[in-house]
Each structure stands twice: as structure tokens, then as C-alpha cells.
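The following block was generated as part of the benchmark described in Methods. Ligand: coenzyme A.
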Amino acid sequence: MITVRPEMPGDEDAIRQVNLRAFGRDLEGKRVDLIRGSRFWVPGLSMVALDGDNIVGHVLLSAAMLVNDHEAMSILSLVPVAVLPEYQGRGIGTKMIQCALESAKSTDFPAVVVMGHPGYYQRFGFIKASDKGIYAPFTVPEEVYMVLELIPNALDKVTGTVRYPPCFSAL
Ligand SMILES: CC(C)(COP(=O)(O)OP(=O)(O)OC[C@H]1O[C@@H](n2cnc3c(N)ncnc32)[C@H](O)[C@@H]1OP(=O)(O)O)[C@@H](O)C(=O)NCCC(=O)NCCS
């Protein structure tokens, strides 16, 4: 049976491995390490999926900023999410993301942004970010950049561009 829980001390190596195997490179795992050591880390919002005692999946929600000419607001970004190749397609990614979003609802963060496949993220309630006047800081097809309000209508009066932590571009 697959269970999901927040990351605990001692999980770091296994999280690195899951990201390495899922993405076929070490970039995402290194980013997770950098975020963990930064002020953008939000305790309780790094989740792991376990098969028995073995970590087979990982998802991270961490802080980013939504900025416009007048204000800056802290939001969350969902990246990365990774499941070991041999465990993919069994609903583990879905379960981890649902758990992480559920935990995020008990924080003060108003929203989460994600870049990815619309067909995958729509199941969690993500919609096209540009429909809310929210844009990525890089060029990306509008439909793959999405947002989910954690607090209903939190984004009704806020628009802007997302700014990711410096550690996202440090590698
Ligand atoms: C993306 C990922 C985390 C999904 O985890 P998972 O446990 O395989 O996903 P689930 O079993 O919950 O969901 C499977 C669904 O996602 C779809 N899916 C999986 N990966 C996808 C992808 N890269 N693009 C589009 N759809 C994808 C499957 O078609 C399936 O759809 P369905 O439920 O409608 O049948 C996993 O495939 C993975 O680790 N991929 C490599 C790393 C990656 O690309 N991460 C995302 C970017 S941060």
C-alpha cells in the first residue's frame, strides 16, 4: 500500500534519488536541496510517497512571489513532482499532489502555480493562470502555466508575474 507523509529528517538522500531517477538528471534534486536551505522552504509542504519504508515519490510546494507594479504577495509553486519510473501511472503522483494541496490549504498562502500538462493538473482544480492575470517570468505557452486558488477568490483583485527564488536559477 502506498502512503503519503511530509518529508522528515533523513529522507533527503531518497528524495534526491527519486528526482534523479524520475527526471534522469540531478538538477531537480539539487534544487530541492537548495530550497530546503532557503527561506522559501515551507515546513510540511514537501511530501513523500512510501511503498512500505521505501520512498518512491516526492512533491514539493515552496514559496514564490507574485509581483506587480504596486505590490508583492507570497504564493506557492508546485515543482518538482517525481515518481520512480517503475511506480508511475498508478495514481501516486495524484495522491501526493492532493495531500500537498490539502496541507497547503491550512497555510496563509492564497494560491499555487504550476507549469505542466493541463490534462494532468486540471484534476486538482488548476486553471490557466493567464485567465487570472497571472503570468510566468519566462516565455511559455499560456495553457501550460496554471494556478489554483487555495483561498476562494483570493486572486480576484491581484494580477502579476511570478518571481521564483534565486535558487531556481542558481544551477
Ligand atoms: C509526472 C509524474 C510525477 C506523474 O506521477 P504518476 O504517479 O505517474 O501520475 P499518476 O499515476 O497520478 O497519474 C497518471 C496520469 O498522468 C498522466 N501523465 C503522467 N505523466 C505525464 C506527463 N509527463 N505528461 C502528461 N501526462 C502525464 C498519465 O497519462 C495519467 O493520466 P490519467 O490519470 O488520465 O490516466 C511522473 O510521471 C513523473 O515522475 N514523471 C517524471 C518527472 C516529471 O516529468 N515531473 C513533472 C514535472 S515537475
